TrEMBL record:
Gene: nadD
Phylogenetic placement of the source organism: Bacteria, Pseudomonadati, Pseudomonadota, Gammaproteobacteria, Methylohalomonadales
Species, as recorded: Methylohalomonas lacus
Domain (Cytidyltransferase-like) ranges: 7-191
Keyword line: ATP-binding, NAD, Nucleotide-binding, Nucleotidyltransferase, Pyridine nucleotide biosynthesis, Transferase
Annotated protein name in UniProt: Probable nicotinate-nucleotide adenylyltransferase
Family label: Belongs to the NadD family.
Length: 222
């Protein structure tokens, strides 16, 4: 079995150092071969990006240019319809042989997983790596509580694993909680700062900042 590939889906409107640090932390902690950044075309829950698909992909290319283990994967942009994660994972799974896929998910997204399109099939194609801040990192036991739906509790009782090693042993089907340091940054905050003409220097790579300025993205008049 080859080393697993990490999958980070998102709007990336724009990509920022919170995304990049998370990818590098998980690359190391889970001993992944690479992380694929997959920009969404049209969000299933109706979030409309400000920048175009091409601009978001280009900002990702600029951000990842010096990170050989981080790659942009534009398959959702090429489909040009609502981006369902299960379809993305099925197509990746068919492409890579003998290679586990690890989908990164925030805790909030994980708790709502049973609302996703064809969510029961996700674990046929990938492992789920649920990420949260160290100070509030959940254990599997914490999630067996009333705030988590019975469906998710059942999923956990069948699929939870305790260590990253399990992700290397089979191609799909495990749920791992991984605690990593995260940075308190969101693309929403960055867009708001730009709208108010505040600097976002050092919160995005310099090449991304240059691109944003050149294309006058996220300004008051954009
Ligand atoms: P927005 O503010 O526009 O909703 P965002 O900053 O949350 O955007 P997304 O493109 O939606 O960025 O995020 C892609 C993925 O990265 C999501 O799984 C999200 O939870 C995660 N993520 C976003 N910001 C951070 C951060 N600071 N640290 C770790 N993970 C993050």
């Amino acid at each position: 079995m080859s080393k697993p590939i990490g999958i980070l889906g998102g709007t990336f409107d724009p990509v920022h150092i919170g995304h990049l640090r998370m990818a590098l932390e998980l690359l190391a902690a889970l001993e992944l071969s690479e992380v694929r950044f997959i920009p969404v075309h049209t969000h299933p829950f109706g979030k409309t990006p400000v920048a175009t698909p091409e601009q978001r992909a280009e900002m990702l290319r600029l951000a990842l240019a010096d990170l050989p283990q981080c790659k942009v994967d534009t398959r959702e942009l090429q489909r040009a319809n609502v981006s369902y994660t299960v379809e993305t994972l099925a197509s990746l799974h068919a492409e890579v042989e003998e290679t586990p896929l690890c989908l990164f998910l925030g805790l909030d997204a994980f708790r709502q997983l049973d609302g996703w399109h064809r969510w029961q099939e996700l674990l046929d194609y990938c492992h789920l790596v649920v990420v949260d801040r160290p100070d509030m990192s959940p254990s599997t036991a914490d999630l067996q509580t009333a705030s988590t739906s019975p469906t998710i509790q059942t999923l956990l009782s069948q699929h939870a694993v305790d260590s990253p090693g399990a992700l290397h042993e089979q191609r799909a089907g495990c749920v791992l909680f991984q605690s990593i340091p995260t940075l308190d940054i969101s693309a929403t905050q960055l867009r708001n700062s730009l709208k108010h003409e505040q600097t976002i220097r050092f919160l995005v790579p310099d090449a991304v900042l240059d691109y944003i300025h050149q294309h006058q993205l996220y300004t008051r008049n954009a």
